[in-house]
TrEMBL record:
Membrane topology: Multi-pass membrane protein
InterPro entries the UniProt entry points to: Cyt_c/ubiquinol_Oxase_su3, Cyt_c_oxase_su3_dom, Cyt_c_oxidase-like_su3, Cyt_c_oxidase_su3-like_sf, Cyt_c_oxidase_su3_a-hlx
Organism: Halomonas qinghailakensis
Main location: membrane
EC number: 7.1.1.9
One of the record's GO cellular component terms: plasma membrane
Family affiliation: Belongs to the cytochrome c oxidase subunit 3 family.
Domain called Heme-copper oxidase subunit III family profile: residue spans: 1-285
Localisation per UniProt entry: Cell membrane; Membrane
A molecular function GO annotation: cytochrome-c oxidase activity
Official protein name in the record: cytochrome-c oxidase
Annotated PROSITE patterns: COX3 (PS50253)
Main EC class the enzyme belongs to: translocase
């Protein structure tokens, strides 16, 4: 401690995390280009998980030892805030790509707008969304698309409900009602698992019955990039909330000192908001 502010000792986790992440990304790149990088990708992925687990364990132990004060709490809040902002920009890029294709690129190929001359490339192309008939005949578009009022609507209701149950759990923790917090948090984790299972069913249907694949033109690419990355975030968020549930069972967190739990709430609510945007702009319109 120095003047009431905790200064952590030299840590090996940042460099180990960087090496693990680098190995995972290099392996992924080799896998995509040469189809031979699977072992390196899996080793890197496992290393990232191990480093994260050990690093978080160390942070939890420091917090439980009373080493963190109000200034450290503000540092954590700023860090989590900037992390979520980076996630907002991450999804904004993919939403931007979707809007660009739908608003500009496809109409241009159909002969509209200032760059309508692009229609000379494929004169028989019909500008529509979803794009069932891509201009390049070598690309086969989807056969049909999902009705937003079936599985997508169910998943939307599940995630919106999960935000409510998580808020109840958070308020219960602040009130010292730990049993109530555990029950509602367990319900949130269960809802997250339900979302993941339903999205898995949807992906199976997409590939086997709807013709929606990663090779199904721009619609298939944008569909899986947006919903796939969101699905990964739901999986990560569910794991985080499950870890919070274990910590609650073990007696961690105080009524007025539980930023680890609060940060997981921030993350989950962000994931829910992103899904509402996906439901509107990917499934409905």
């Amino acid at each position: 401690m120095s003047g009431g502010y905790y200064v952590p000792a030299t840590s090996r986790w940042p460099i180990l995390g960087s090496l693990a992440l680098g190995a995972m990304m290099v392996g992924t790149g080799i896998k995509l280009v040469y189809d031979t990088g699977t072992p390196l990708m899996l080793i890197g992925m496992a290393s990232v998980i191990i480093v994260m687990g050990l690093w978080f364990r160390e942070v939890i132990r420091e917090s439980m030892s009373g080493l963190y004060d109000a200034q450290m709490d503000r540092s954590f809040r700023w860090g989590m805030g900037w992390f979520i902002f980076s996630e907002v920009m991450f999804f904004a890029a993919f939403f931007g790509a979707l809007f660009y294709v739908r608003t500009f690129a496809i109409p241009w190929l159909g002969g509209e707008g200032a760059k309508g001359v692009s229609a000379l490339l494929w004169p028989e192309f019909v500008a529509q969304w979803p794009l069932f008939n891509p201009p390049d005949s070598s690309v086969i578009g989807p056969e049909r698309v999902f009705s937003p009022w079936q599985l997508p609507l169910v998943n939307t209701l599940i995630l919106v409900t999960s935000s409510i149950t998580l808020t109840v759990a958070h308020e219960a923790l602040k009130s010292g009602e730990r049993k109530t917090c555990r029950h509602w948090l367990a319900g949130t984790v269960l809802l997250g698992c339900c979302f993941i299972v339903i999205q898995g069913v949807e992906y199976y249907e997409a590939y086997h019955h709807y013709g929606i694949t990663l090779e199904a033109g721009i619609f298939g690419a944008t569909f899986f990039i947006l919903t796939g990355f969101h699905g990964v975030h739901v999986i990560v968020g569910t794991i985080i909330l499950a870890c919070m549930l274990v910590r609650i069972w073990k007696g961690h967190f105080a009524n007025d000192h539980h930023f680890g739990f609060e940060a997981s709430c921030w993350y989950w609510h962000f994931v829910d908001v992103v899904w509402v945007g996906l439901f509107i702009f990917v499934y409905v319109f």
